[in-house]
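Hi there. Long-time user, first ticket. I'm pasting a complex I've been working with (about 527 residues overall). I'd like to know whether the download I got is complete or cut off, because the file seemed smaller than I expected. Thanks.
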Amino acid sequence: MISKRIYAAWFVVHFFLITAVCFAGIFSVVAEGKTMLPSALDKYARKAELIAASVLWKEAAAASPVRQGIATYLHAAGSQSGYTFFAPNVPGYNKLTLELYYQDGRVEYESPRVSGKAAALRLDSLLNRLADNRYEPIREVVVKMLAFSVWREHPGVKKIRAIFGSVTPPSISDFEQGKKESFQPLFSYDFSLRNEEKEPTTR
Amino acid sequence: MTRLRRWRKRLMEFLFPAETDKWLAVLRIGLGLQVTVYALFLKSDWHYLFAGTGKGLVSRELGEAIISFDSPFIPKLGWLVAVGGYVNMGEETVLSVAWACLLVAGCCLLLGLFCRAAAIVGWFVHLCAAQSGGLLSYGADNFMTMGLFYLMLSPLPDRFSLDYRLVKTKPKDPQLLGFWRRVLQVHLCLVYFFGGLGKSLGSGWWDGSNLWRSLTRPPFDIISADILIRFKYLLPILGISIVLIELGYVFFIWMKKTRFIWLVCIVGMHIAIGLTMGMYLFALVMIVLNLAAFGADPGFAERSSRKIRQKFERSKQTQYRCLA
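Hi, the file is complete. Here it is re-exported in full:
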């Protein structure tokens, strides 16, 4: 009976944490203002998201052992993020185009590539994350790494211009009218390896 | 009996129904297949995805640094690389060994050989890879970690495994088996309820435009848009169906009369996701989790939980007699 009580207690704590993660995910979706709900609810959703986050101890100091313990446990259980896949709406996708400038003036266009389909899904996931404002601090570093991965295969390249943007696919009616997807550049970076010079520019 | 006691009794009955280990066999074999396929699918890109700075697609160290903001105790491939360093193993060798461990763990789970150890190794190495490549991870990784986490905690081995045939282990407590199945069932209900709730808030799921978008955007654009446009009147129906199936899962999967139809719908939905969007790993892990949670012997517990308990008690007594 004692062991049953322990199991039951674990069950309650486990699902309490997972439910908090799920609620945080839903409130975050509402707070971003992308749902059908009235925009007046956005600020309340933000507050509710913060409450759910505080339940998970995310508002505590980074060094807090409770916060670290909960985060470790949730990651270990595969439950660190909510289940709002493709919700509330399916966004457009993102594209990173690399302009390769050679010594002789040639210009080629490339994109970061992987060989398998399973890895291609992961690359797509990475590009979608880069468009997210939360990843803004590491955006340049990641783009630089992606550019460098292409550079290794083209050692003769003098400079690389990386252009990151979002692609909006045509809606059903637009597609029927023959319209194509539209590309909206979000930012670009210039990388130069030889003289260790890097000139980031944001558009 | 007070109301509180009655309530507690009911909770305990809900949490600890007597179950056979069929569902556990489904989970073990399914996740064994999943881990094996995961390792094989990523074989050609494994080093490229998880190599350190300057050697791969993006730096593994960057992903690990980001994950360390959450907690420095989250397992990562960097730990294995550091341990390998002590025995003069280079990063590439460690990554190869980690990949091989994953493949072997998957095969062992499939066969039911060293079940517990294989589940722990599979969970740990996959977790390390998923966290180190956090920037590159997606939904399938979370569900794999979740499934392996529950599998390693469940009362292994099941009676369909090689372990059970080679070393006659004592029978597992049916109520404990029932408990872990309940955990999986409740978790799936949360997954679908919140997934459906999130989708129901987006207008695109009610008019079919989200389905159009998800099926036409790379890298999910397996079906040509020209073909898809012929079925445009079907898209709103399918979009609404997805929302209703996910939202209704939490209610209808528990009812005896609707369980089978709901299970067929949800498995059908995941098969369709796998085939039309190329998300094979995601589809496979969701099908495995659903079949383990509600597929193997649906409604069995309600029908004969007493019988299972009696059988367990009898086999326990026989074992004690043999030992005496």
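A couple of notes from our side: Residues 102 and 155 of chain A are 9 Å apart (CA to CA). The longest strand of chain A covers residues 157-168.
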